[in-house]
Amino acid sequence: MNNKITIGIPRALLYYKYNVLWQSFFKELGIDTLISPETNYEILENGKKNTMSEACLSMKIYVGHVDYLKDKVDYILVPRIVSLEKGMKLCTNFSALYDILNNTFDINILNYNIDVDKGITEELAFIKMGQELGFGKILSLNAYKAAKKEEYKQNKINYLLQEKRLNRNKTKVLLVCHTYNSNDNLVGKLVTDNLKEFGVDVIYADIINPDGDRLLYKNISKALYWTYNQELLNSIEEYKDKVDGIIFLSTFPCGPDSLVNEMCSHKIDKKMITILIDELSTIEGLQTRLESFIDILRKDRFYE
C-alpha cells in the first residue's frame, strides 16, 4: 500500500465513537478518507438485502454503508475489537465484522485488531495498521499518539458542553444508548429531534468524562463485562440525580442492551421508558410515546 489510496469509512457502528481518532491518524499519514453519508432509507434497504434477517438494525445499517462505499474507494476500514481491557468483552458483532463483510462483499478491507486479553492493545493495532499501509513503526506510532491527543481534546469538549446543558433550567432527559444509535439519522436522531421540539434538553449517556471514574457501573452491576454497556451505566450513575427521567434506546434485537436495560429498570429509582427501534418503527408512534413521557416528567417537576 501507499499514501495515494483512499480509505472508505462507513458512517455507522464505531464510526461515531472513533471517527476523530481514525481521521486524525490517516491525516497524519497523508492518506485520504471518504466517509459515507448520513443514513437514509436507501442505505438501510441495501443493508437489509445483504444481511441475515436476525441481524440487529444497527448491523443492517452498517452493512448498507459498506455497500455505499464498496465501489468508491480503494479500501474500507473495518476494525475488529474483541477486548479493550483484560477480562472485558464487546458485543460479538465487533469481533465478527471482518468475517461478515469478507463473506458478503468483494472488497479490499483495511483491518486492525484489538484484543487486550491476548496482549494486542489499541496502540499496537494502529502501529501494525500503519505498517500495512507502508509506513514505518515510528511514524505510525507518532501518528497514533497525535490522533489520541485529538480524540481526547474532542471528548473533553463534548463533555464540557454537556455539563453546560445540565445547568439550564429545563426538563432534562438522559438518553441511554450507544453512540452509533444516538447519532444515526434513522435511530437516535428520530428521538432527539422530537425531544428538542418538546423543549427538552437531551443528556447523552454515550458522552463520557475522559478523566472520570470508570468503575461507577459497579454500583449497578459488578459482573457486567461488556465495555460499552459499562460506559453507559457509568453515565447513569453520574447523571441520574441531575435529570428528570431516563430513556433507554436500543435497536432490535440487541441482546446485551435488552439484558442491561431490564436490570436497570429494577435497580434505578427514576422515571424511565425503553424504546426499541426496528425497521418497521413509525415516527407517529414514537412521537406519542415520547410526548406522554415528557408530560409525566413535567407534572412531577410542577408538583415538586
Give the mean pLDDT.
91
* Number of domain modules: 2
- So what's the overall shape? globular
Query: Tell me, what is the CATH class of the largest domain?
Result: Alpha Beta
**How are strands sequenced across the largest beta sheet?**
2-1-3-5
What percent strand? 5-15%
Radius of gyration: 20 Å
Biggest pleated sheet: 4 strands, parallel
Low-confidence stretches: none
CATH architecture of the largest domain: 3-Layer(aba) Sandwich
**Strand/helix succession:** EHEHHEEHEEHHEHHEHEHEH
Head-to-tail CA distance between termini: 63 Å
Percent of residues in helices comes to 40-55%
What kind of oligomer do you see? single chain
What's the total count of β strands? 10
The CATH topology assignment of the largest domain is Rossmann fold
| Continuous helix count | 11
User: What structural class do helix, strand and pairing data support?
Assistant: alpha/beta
